[in-house]
Design goal:
Layout lengths: L4 H37 L5 H8 L2 H21 L8 H7 L6 H21 L1 H11 L9 H25 L7 H37 L13 E11 L4 E10 L2 E7 L8 E8 L4 E5 L7 E5 L4 E5 L3 H8 L1
Antiparallel strand pairs: 1-2, 1-7, 2-3, 3-4, 5-6, 6-7
């Protein structure tokens, strides 16, 4: 007799889980342990750096090796009298939130490996030595580290497939559907962690361009729009080039620096968004002009086109 489709998928889940636990073992028990030992004894690399590279990989490894894999294995052995995995995956789902931290840290970890490989030849040698071992299958540390990042989407795909192949009357239907929903939420959580990390990185780049002024650097700010603008001087009927950064709570009115050492812009004025009024001006001499008034002061600004003006006003 041919195996039912849903059992094949459940078996694939078990096989990939076994391979995944081997990969986690390599990361935690081989790379992390050996680099940590070296950091404690030699002067290759600070312990802190090793910890930052591997984030919370030990917790992830323990959870899969000591809990999820054994539960899954037991379930597949009893499949003929109890054909279900939905409930086991429901137990797994909440723990997958641990991945948020690992995923968020991933880019930083890869940067640290590169930077310290250049700084410390013994560090680089030890990694190269481990990578030569058979267990590494000719793949780099960075490649192995990517595996946990890809694991949750993999669960989602396998489970989707499993639910699709389940017979309508299967005793596992209710549990499997609930498990899929939970995994979906965790995947979203993990993606949100990546998006938040990217937002903070972009924000940091903007702060550097502004010269890292203390009262401006705030991780909760959100950059909404930035770009060049002409400032109209009503006194002598002329315009001068300025640059705007619009955040959720403030508008920074800046001047591009001529000599760009360090910061790219000098902040001339900081205006509160709260209570700010913005309106279009019908000026025949200066088209695409709009007025921004805040409690600090009022600016008459000219955009390069109608679309640009509309985008700023919006």
């Amino acid at each position: 007799m041919q195996e039912p489709e849903e059992k094949k998928i459940a078996l694939e889940l078990l096989e990939t889980e076994q391979a995944y636990v081997n990969r986690l073992h390599l990361l935690d028990q081989v790379f992390y342990t050996e680099l940590m030992k070296e950091a404690k004894t030699g002067k290759t690399v600070p312990e802190e750096v090793v910890k930052m590279i591997f984030s919370n990989i030990s917790s992830i490894y323990q959870f899969h090796a000591e809990f999820f894999l054994p539960e899954l294995r037991k379930r597949m052995e009893d499949w003929d009298c109890n054909p279900r995995i939905g409930d086991v995956i429901q137990k797994l789902a909440p723990f997958l939130k641990m991945y948020g931290e690992y995923v968020k840290n991933f880019d930083k970890a890869v940067e640290l490996i590169t930077a310290w490989s250049e700084k410390s030849p013994p560090f680089q040698e030890l990694i190269a030595d481990i990578q030569k071992r058979k267990v590494c299958a000719n793949l780099t540390l960075q490649h192995h580290m990517l595996e946990p990042v890809q694991r949750i989407p993999r669960y989602e795909l396998l489970l989707k497939d499993y639910v699709r192949k389940l017979p309508p009357r299967s005793p596992d239907r209710g549990d499997a559907e609930k498990a899929l929903e939970m995994i979906f939420m965790v995947a979203k959580h993990s993606n949100a962690a990546i998006a938040e990390m990217e937002r903070l990185q972009n924000l940091w780049v903007v702060y550097q361009r502004l010269g890292l002024e203390d009262d401006i650097v705030d991780p909760s700010n959100e950059l909404i729009k930035e770009g060049p603008i002409q400032k109209i001087s009503t006194r002598n009927n002329s315009t001068s080039e300025k640059y705007l950064f619009l955040f959720n709570n403030m508008l920074l009115y800046c001047v591009p620096k001529v000599i760009q050492v360090g910061a790219e812009f000098q902040v001339h004025l900081r205006m509160d968004v709260e209570g700010m009024k913005v309106r279009e001006l019908k000026d025949t001499e200066f088209p695409h002009t709009f007025l921004v008034s805040a409690k600090q002061r009022t600016l008459e600004l000219q955009a390069r086109s109608e679309e640009e003006m509309d985008a700023w006003i919006k």
